[in-house]
Each structure stands twice: as structure tokens, then as C-alpha cells.
């Protein structure tokens, strides 16, 4: 795991200082209160003269000061530690997202959208406890040492016994926590990760699930990981209860040991008794950390595959348009600017070929760009040559203009409107109240399926690449709109000299192609 950034470390140092002050204030508050109450009771039982001689102003002022100091410092420790945790988690998410975004998708780990979401959200959240509780450890140790010092006021033997019990306590509670929580923490992390992944993937198909009445089927499919998660969490809650009971008994043992061996007066014995109880309670932060350590380790284990990814520079926009490269598809050579239609039945591999050209997946067919096989072409080379308008038309949850700006930097509104005109979408966007600033939902609403396809096509046109890859570009369009789109697109291809590799089951878009290549000829080559 990467070290926290400098701002996070500064916040953690302030949080640690606050935690030390809070722990010492709490321990001194409890000890002084015990001494004060016992001393006041003894003075009251000794007569009026003893009561008048007893100075209650200084200890009562000290108690009030310690109470205020403990409250303020504990609030500061909570606020600062959570600020550090949230900042560190945001930094880690950004780093992991950057790692994933910079990977060559042909060789990157095969992580679904749901699984990526589970890791970037759930597994990183499991690290929050690790960071939040980090400042409390020095505070716990400082409070434990102060407790031993206060216990020493009631005799050297109570202090020695308390010190021994405090040394053993962290090891005992850590061993007990690991024994009780390791297996259920692993089961809970796996079940929660699977549940998140399934939920995200199914949420993307929520319209189809509702339309075909599959809600009950989906709920039944989710029932198994939910049951496993509930069972694991019940085991974790039982483990926490067991550790809390052990801590309570251990604190009682420490208090009895100090009280039984105290050789001082009642007031100092009471101070030592409460100091022992407070010292054990101060070390409870270590026990709470140990309880959650198994969850943290499981989250780290699931993140390892992402953290081990090699750092790659994010792709930069080319300073000038790249030169068009010739293609070789199987045994057929095509010059820059050629218009090619890949023909074949559904499932024969046409879409796979387009995605391979776009650098989205490894190629299983003999395809070369500028004489180099696809496997030897860098991702930047393929990105510079090809602009893909995919069959499923993925869109960003943002405005229409945001989606068009993804094509390349520096796109003007005039260029956007020109591209929308070519794709027969200009009038539809103009009728929207916010125009180009209309916000789209995750499913592209308020645009229809055919309109989302055309928006994706407009984005591909704006990319300005030498080759245009179109996968079913007119799917979901009526005949008149399809004919007009094909006419305008054909004129644009001729005027720009852009090459085309087209996949379509509809006959009219095939009129754009100069060459037809059966996909079987490509895959057999």
C-alpha cells in the first residue's frame, strides 16, 4: 500500500496529538475524581474540622479543566482522523482509477464494472478503520504509561502488576480477535464484493429485468450472497461481543489486583484502582483495531491485483492528426480512405474485429495496421488511427456537450452542432430546453436508443481519426432517418477522406462501402 500523502500525514500527526491529550485527560480525570471523592468522603467522616481543612477548590477546578480538555481533544481527534481517512481513501481511489484507465485494455485484468465498483468503493472503505484508529494507538500507550505512574502512588507492587497486565493485554486481545474474526471477515468481504458486483451489473439491466418480469428471479439470485453476508456478520458481531466480555473481565482483574496490593491510604488506593481501569479501557482502541484488522487485511488482499498494476502514463491527445495507415485484414490489403463492410451472421466475430482494431481487446484474427500485427501495435497507435461508434453506444452521465467533448480536447460548439447535423440529431437537440447542456442519465435519458446511437456516432466523427469504425450505426432508426443519415455520412466521408470499417445487418448502410469482406475469410486467413 502506498504511503499517505504529506497533507494526510500532517493531519494524522495533529490527530495523534489530540488522541494523546484526550487519553491522558480521560485517565487523569478518572483518577483525580476517584481520589477527590474518596478524600472528601474521608474528610466528611472525620468531623467538621477535617471538612473545613479539606481543599476542594483546586481538585474540583482540575476535574472541570480535564473534562473540558478531554472533550475538546477527543472531538479534534475524531474530526482530524476522519478527515485523514476520507482524504486518503479519495487519493487511493484516484490512484486506482488512474491505474485502470491507463492500462492497455487488451492486457489489463478482466474486471467487470460491478467488480471494479466493489473494489473501488467497498474494499477501500474497509481501510477507513485502519486510518481512523491510527492516531489512537499512541494515545492508548501514553494513557497506559500514565496509568502505571498513577498506580505507583498506591505502591510499587500495584504498579508492577498493572504494568504486567497491560503488556499481556494487547497480545491476548489480538490473538483472540484474529482467532474469532479471520474466517467470518473473509467470508463477509467475499460475499459483500460478490453482492456489489452482481447488483451493479443487474442495475445496468434494470429496464429489461422489469420489462420481462424477472424481479423475483433476480432477488432469488441475490439471496445466496445476502444470506452468506448475514451469516458472516452475525459471526463478527458474536466475536466482538466475546472480545468485549474478555476486555471487561480483564479490566476487573486489573482493578482487583491493584486494590488488593495497594499499600497507601484509601484516597490513593482509589486513585490507583480507577487508573488501572482507565488504562485497560485506553488500550481498548488496540482491541477494536484488532477486531477490524481481519476485514482490513481482506480488503487489501482484494485490492492487491489492482495495486500491482504497473504505472502507465495516461494517454495524451496527439498534437497533430496522425497520418492514415493502410490496413491488412486477413489476406486483403486496403489503402487509407477505403470503405470496407465486414459481412457475416450474428456471432461470427464482426464486432470482435472492430473492437480489436479500436484496441479494446486482443485480436484473434490476422489484422495488421501499417504493416504491423495488432498485437505489436501500441494502444496509442490504435487510438490515433481509429474512432469507434460501438453497438451499445456507451454514454457518460453528464451533459450532451460533455459526451461530445470526450472525442478530443478543444471541440467548439460549432463543431458539435456540425457533427450533430451529419448524424440527423441537430433538430432534436435544438428542441431540448437546455440544448447541448441537457443532462443525460446513466441510461442516456431523455434520448431514445436510436438517438444515443447517433450521439455516439457524432462523437466518433468529432474525434477526427483517419479510420471510422461503425457497428450497426442505423439500428433503431426509421427508414427515412436512416436514408438521410447514410446520405449525409457518405458526403462527410468523401469530403474528409476518412476510411470506414462498417458492420451492419441492414442493407442501406452497406451502400457506403466500396469493398465487402466476409468475416469468415478474415478468420480463416
Short description:
By secondary structure, this protein is an alpha/beta fold. The chain contains 19 helices and 9 strands. The strands form 2 sheets. A 5-stranded parallel sheet has the order 6-7-8-3-9, sandwiched between helices. The protein has a 4-stranded antiparallel sheet with strand order 2-1-4-5, with no helix packed on it.
Task: Give an account of the 3D structure.
It is a single chain. It contains 19 helices and nine strands. The chain has helices spanning 6-46, 48-53, 57-102, 113-125, 128-132, 136-152, 156-203, 206-211, 215-261, 266-282, 284-307, 350-357, 379-385, 400-405, 413-422, 426-431, 449-462, 479-496, 519-524, and strands at residues 327-329, 332-334, 339-343, 367-369, 372-373, 386-389, 467-471, 499-503, 515-518. The strands form two sheets. It has a five-stranded parallel beta sheet, sandwiched between helices. Helix 18 (479-496) links the parallel strand 7 and strand 8 (499-503). Helix 7 (156-203) runs parallel beside helix 11 (284-307). The two termini are 47 Å apart. The model has no long low-confidence stretch (mean pLDDT 79).
Amino acid at each position: 500500500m502506498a504511503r499517505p500523502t504529506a497533507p494526510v500525514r500532517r493531519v494524522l500527526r495533529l490527530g495523534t496529538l489530540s488522541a494523546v491529550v484526550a487519553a491522558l485527560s480521560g485517565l487523569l480525570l478518572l483518577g483525580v475524581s476517584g481520589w477527590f471523592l474518596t478524600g472528601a468522603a474521608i474528610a466528611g467522616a472525620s468531623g467538621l474540622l477535617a471538612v473545613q481543612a479539606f481543599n476542594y477548590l483546586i481538585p474540583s477546578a482540575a476535574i472541570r479543566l480535564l473534562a473540558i480538555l478531554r472533550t475538546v481533544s477527543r472531538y479534534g481527534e475524531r474530526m482530524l482522523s476522519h478527515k485523514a481517512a476520507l482524504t486518503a481513501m479519495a487519493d487511493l481511489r484516484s490512484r486506482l482509477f488512474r491505474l485502470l484507465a491507463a492500462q492497455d485494455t487488451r492486457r489489463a485484468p478482466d474486471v467487470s464494472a460491478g467488480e471494479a465498483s466493489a473494489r473501488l468503493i467497498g474494499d477501500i472503505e474497509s481501510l477507513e478503520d485502519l486510518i481512523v484508529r491510527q492516531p489512537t494507538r499512541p494515545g492508548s500507550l501514553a494513557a497506559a504509561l500514565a496509568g502505571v505512574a498513577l498506580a505507583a502512588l498506591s505502591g510499587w507492587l500495584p504498579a508492577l502488576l498493572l504494568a504486567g497486565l497491560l503488556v499481556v493485554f494487547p497480545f491476548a486481545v489480538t490473538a483472540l480477535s484474529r482467532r474469532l474474526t479471520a474466517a467470518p471477515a473473509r467470508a463477509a468481504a467475499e460475499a459483500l464484493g460478490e453482492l456489489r458486483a452482481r447488483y451493479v451489473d443487474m442495475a445496468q439491466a434494470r429496464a429489461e429485468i422489469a420489462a420481462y418480469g424477472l424481479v423475483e428471479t433476480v432477488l432469488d439470485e441475490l439471496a445466496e450472497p445476502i444470506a452468506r453476508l448475514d451469516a458472516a456478520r452475525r459471526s463478527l458481531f458474536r466475536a466482538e461481543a466475546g472480545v468485549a466480555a474478555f476486555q471487561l473481565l480483564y479490566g476487573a482483574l486489573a482493578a482487583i489486583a491493584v486494590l488488593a496490593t495497594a499499600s497507601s491510604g484509601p484516597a490513593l488506593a482509589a486513585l490507583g484502582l480507577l487508573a488501572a481501569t482507565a488504562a485497560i479501557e485506553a488500550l481498548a482502541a488496540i482491541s477494536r483495531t484488532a477486531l477490524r484488522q481481519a476485514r482490513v487485511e481482506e480488503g487489501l488482499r482484494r485490492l492487491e491485483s489492482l495495486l500491482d498494476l504497473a504505472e502507465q502514463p495516461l494517454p495524451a491527445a496527439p498534437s497533430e492528426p496522425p497520418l492514415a495507415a493502410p490496413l491488412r485484414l486477413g489476406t486483403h490489403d486496403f489503402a487509407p480512405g477505403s470503405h470496407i463492410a465486414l459481412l457475416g451472421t450474428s456471432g461470427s466475430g464482426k464486432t470482435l474485429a472492430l473492437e480489436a482494431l479500436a484496441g479494446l481487446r486482443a485480436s484473434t484474427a490476422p489484422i495488421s495496421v501499417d504493416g504491423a500485427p495488432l498485437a505489436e501495435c501500441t494502444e496509442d497507435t490504435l487510438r490515433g488511427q481509429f474512432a469507434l461508434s460501438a453497438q451499445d453506444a456507451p454514454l457518460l452521465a453528464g451533459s450532451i456537450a460533455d459526451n461530445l467533448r470526450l472525442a478530443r480536447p478543444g471541440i467548439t460548439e460549432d463543431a458539435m452542432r456540425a457533427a450533430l447535423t451529419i448524424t440527423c440529431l441537430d433538430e432534436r437537440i435544438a428542441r431540448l430546453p437546455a440544448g447541448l447542456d441537457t443532462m443525460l442519465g446513466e441510461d442516456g435519458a431523455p434520448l431514445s436508443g436510436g438517438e444515443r446511437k447517433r450521439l455516439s456516432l457524432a462523437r466518433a466523427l468529432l474525434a477526427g481519426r483517419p479510420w471510422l469504425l461503425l457497428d450497426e450505426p442505423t439500428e433503431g432508426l426509421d427508414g427515412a432517418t436512416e436514408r438521410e443519415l447514410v446520405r449525409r455520412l457518405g458526403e462527410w466521408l468523401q469530403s474528409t477522406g476518412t476510411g470506414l470499417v462498417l458492420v451492419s445487418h441492414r442493407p442501406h448502410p452497406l451502400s457506403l462501402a466500396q469493398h465487402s469482406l466476409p468475416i469468415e475469410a478474415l478468420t480463416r486467413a
